[in-house]
Each structure stands twice: as C-alpha cells, then as structure tokens.
Specification:
Layout lengths: L12 H6 L12 E6 L5 E6 L1 H15 L12 E2 L1 H8 L3 H9 L6 E3 L2 E5 H22 L28 H13 L8 H10 L6 H10 L2 H10 L4 H15 L4 H10 L1
Length: about 260
Amino acid sequence: MTTHVLQFVGLSDQDRKAAQTFERLGKGDQVEVRVRRKSGEDQVIRLPPNAAALLETALGHLLQGERVAVLAEDQELSPNDAADVLGISRPLVVHRMDVGDLPFRYVGKHRRTKLRDILTLKAKMDAQRKALEALAADAEEYEPAGPVKKSEKRIGRSSDRASAPKDVDQLVLGTTNAPYRRTISSTDLVARLTSRDWQNWIPHIVTFFTEVRPELVLQFARVHAISVRDLAAAYRSMKSASGETNPALERALERLA
C-alpha cells in the first residue's frame, strides 16, 4: 500500500529572483530534466508535451511565491489541507462536508476527503464566482432607499446610472447562497448585518463578506440603507467570530469612514 503525504513546495526568494528570466514555452519547445547524481554524472529525461505543460504551470506558481503540491486524485486530505486547496477556512470546509457539498469519511475521529472531490467543488465554486463577477461588472452603485442619519456617512455613488435593487440582491444572494443548501433572503441578511446576531447563519455571513465583491457589498448596503458604520461593525464582528478577513473590503470601509 502506497502512502501519499501532502507536502507543499515553495521556492526561496533567492531562487525566485534567479529564475525570473524564465520565458513561457512556445510551439515546438522541448523540456528536459537534468538530474545530477552524487557521482557527478548527469541523467537527462525528456518530458512529453503534457508533462512539460504541467511543469511550466507549476513553475509559474512557484515564481509567483505560491506553494505547489502534486497529488493523485484519490489521495485523501484533511479539512485543513482541503481549506488550502479551496482557499477558504477550515470551519467552512467542515460546514460544506456537513451539508453534503463535499463527500468525506471518518478515519478514526478524523475527517478525510478525496482530492478528486475537493477539485470538483473548487471547479464549481470558481465557475459560480466567475459567472457572478461577470454579471456584477455591469452593476452600478446605488443610493440607499431609506433615510440615513446625518451622523452616519452614506456610501458614495460613482455613477448616475443605478442598478435596480432586485438585481443587486440577486447578485449578492447568488454568491452568498451558492455553496449552501439552506438559503438566506435579503431581508434576513439585512437583519443579521444590522443586529450582528448571526445565529445559525455564520457561514453565509462569512461568504457575504469574503466572497462577494467589495463594490457589490457596498451596493447591497446602499440599497438597504445600511450605514457605513453598521456595515463596518458587522464586518468586524464577523472577523472576530470566524477569523476570516477581506483586506480589499477593509480598505474600502476605511476610506468611507
């Protein structure tokens, strides 16, 4: 029985700087791997095109300072490892397991999920995010429908043309609810944000603040008359409860404060 271990590999800053001149492969280029043995002899292996493309992709990530791991699809990973692959927190991975979005099994008391299933979920998440971002790119910022106290700064408007509230809600809820079987309405989401009483909605609140585009978060707040102060307070509460952050949204809120 072969045991695979998840081990991420990265390049040092010195190695990355030395390799910055590497150019992307062109048509007809060939890749050879040279192994220098302790004896001083060199062994050269020519890679087939598919393997060369894989190596090029891995090297590209390494040169950007990212870590890379190569695993078989049937390799079982822990929730922490799955979180690294999916780019979300461990609590959200466990939640996805509990609601059936990510198949898993217990090994003793520990959860394990196959890389194949993790990649399937990641592809679904990426496709949903890409489609929603394409729609959100056309969404314009919107003034609050209701009054805001003079002491509470409004979220500014960059365009005279405003998106309809229902369109903003559809985009926001599409992202917020996409990973989950249980869905939250715009009314409930507004109530949770203004009261900061998450109850059983914490995964949705985390997704709202971390996966919805910052400009769309601000649009949603404007449509539903949520002040910058209340939105920022809700974000800080979510951050404290989950440990999740959204630096881009934080900068936007700081500018508007």
